[in-house]
Amino acid sequence: MRILVVEDELTLAAQLVEGIMSVGYVVDVAHNGVDGHFMGETEPYDAIVLDIGLPQMDGITVLKKWRAAGRTLPVLILTARDTWREKVAGIDAGADDYLTKPFHMEELLARLRALIRRAGGHASTELVCGPLTLDTRSSRASVDGTALTLTSHEYRVLAYLMHHPGEIVSRAELTEHIYAQDFDRDSNTVEVFIARLRKKLPPGLIETVRGLGYRLNKAQ
Q: What is the pLDDT of residues 20-41, one digit of tens each?
């Protein structure tokens, strides 16, 4: 899963990137509203963490522009302490949730997980597909209770498929969601990760749909 952080305070931005990456997400970062707006409008993020007080273009304006352009991805806004007007303005502009500074990283991560789950129609912190379970809190996967040993990229591919069970996901889509913007992407490596996952998962769980991509088979 791929997250955009739009935060102008460099120390906080670095802490956000480190914390979000520590649970298996890939992260891009922008330090002003103009760059953040462009990245959020042109890249396929799974969620965005958006500060309200940004230089060049404030966060409320950025969010309004995304929503006006039809961008429906989950957005978590960061507001200053006790500024209830910012919270109201953010929600009215289309924010899905808000967090007041200062905050605990664990709470931000929990809210991000919830936003991403809800966007995919999932209610529980555990995603289940047949014998396969993925715990979004611990970033661990298991088959019939036995933990799987996965590399970071294998986990990202599996997590994206688990958030979209039964859907056909193309190689290009997987590539866009498992690599950060500045990474040298190669969609051919997705085949390698899929092949490795198939060796660790029950047969038939990941189905190849010829010419279209891959599908996590819910019937398993």
A: 999 989 999 999 999 999 999 9
Distances from the Cα of 124 to the Cα of 35, 88, 128, 129, 182, angstroms: 34, 28, 9, 13, 32
Is the model's pTM score more than 0.85? no
Count of residues in the chain: 220
Distance between first and last Cα of the chain: 23
- How does pLDDT run across 55-73, given as a tens digit for each residue? 999 999 999 999 999 999 9
| Alpha carbon 178 to chain centroid, angstroms | 9
| Two tokens, residue 103 | 């905050």
The DSSP annotation for 71-134 comes to: ----EEEEE-TT-HHHHHHHHHHT-SEEEESS--HHHHHHHHHHHHHHHTT--SSEEEETTEEE
Q: pLDDT tens-digit profile of 172-217? A: 899 988 887 766 666 678 899 999 999 999 999 999 999 899 999 8
What phi and psi, each to the nearest 5 degrees, are found at residue 51? -75, 145
What is the helix (H) or strand (E) element at residue 6, kind and residue range? Answer: strand 2-6
Alpha carbons 203 and 197: distance in angstroms, whole number: 10
- Could you give all domains of the chain from N- to C-terminal order, each with its CATH number? 2-119 (3.40.50.2300), 126-216 (1.10.10.10)
Give the integer Cα–Cα distance in Å for 54 and 113.
24
Confidence of residue 118 (pLDDT cuts 50, 70, 90): confident
Which residue matches tokens 């498992």?
178
How many whole angstroms separate alpha carbon 121 and alpha carbon 162? 11
